Queue: 2 jobs
Job 1
Amino acid sequence: MSVKKILTEPNKLLRKVSIPVEKVGKEEQKLMDDMLDTMYAANGIGLAAVQIGVPKRIIVMDISRDENKKEPMYFVNPVIKNKNSENSKYEEGCLSVPNQFAEIERPNGCDVEFLDYYGKKKLLKAYGLLATCIQHEMDHLEGILFIDYLSKLKKSMIIKKLSKSKLSRIVV
Ligand code: NI
């Protein structure tokens, strides 16, 4: 298991649509292990494979936020089967959009069909934070970031800031 580099916006790969996984094998499990390590190291609660440069439809999450009681979740080829008509708002951030936060409105619940760590088919009825987190991560699989829901002006301001912070500063 190892900690990988997390890609940050602007980056073309983050805008790619991830491809479905044919079979959950050793390679995919190793990828999920690395993703989880990377997510924990960055203090995130969710990570999509494309964020470490692998455009496959894989997500890891742990919304327990408890160091002593880790509750990792793995989603391979997740598909949303049903969305609630009621929405909820959360202040969202993203490991690929460092230090930026914005209130985003999404359906407050959804049913998700997916394969687990062992390739077994599962259905999860998610509510609240879990539902928001899954929808945020599934957006990554389509090349969508939470800043895409903001106004053009707000979004371009954030991207400008991030582009600037990527330059290395020297004082001579
Ligand atoms: Ni994200």
Note: Helices lie at 26-41, 128-141, 152-166.
Job 2
Amino acid sequence: MVDKEISTDIVTYGDPSDPVLRRVAAPVANIDSAVNRIAEAMVAAMLRANGLGLAAPQIGVSKRIIALDIDGDFHILINPEIIDLSDDAEEATEGCLSVPGVDAPVPRRAHAAVRGYTLDEREITIEREGLMARALQHEIDHLNGVLFIDYLSPAKRRFLLKEYARLKREKDK
Ligand code: ZN
């Protein structure tokens, strides 16, 4: 099988390829060299964009892989699953590399425990609070076709997407 070239370009909302952002991503069956190459491309894209996290659908690959890098707390998780969330919600400003230029307050659970596999096929559980807990929830949402804008009220979302469209038009000029 010849592997397709993996892009390190980030798919953004409104792109012709953006339906990948709304798809439920497929579980990874084997952590093989193809998965390693996808992870490499994700990390490259995340670093270039200065992001805290990235999910495979954001580079056009509909597979359940996420990458996170918050102050050196770096993880690549394959088939991540949320196994515990605290009851308390925290609101904080959130943005997304696939909806660049805009952000909004989004409520998330303060504490999250996530189980997944590493690239060397070890099962690990990550338990975090604050920003990393938020990022884990955000990236796993991507694997289920959910974007942070989905948490906003219709009026707020409309306002934000109008601003987003304006910024995109300006950039495309
Ligand atoms: Zn995102």
Note: Residues 18-86+110-145 form a domain with the Peptide Deformylase fold (CATH 3.90.45.10).
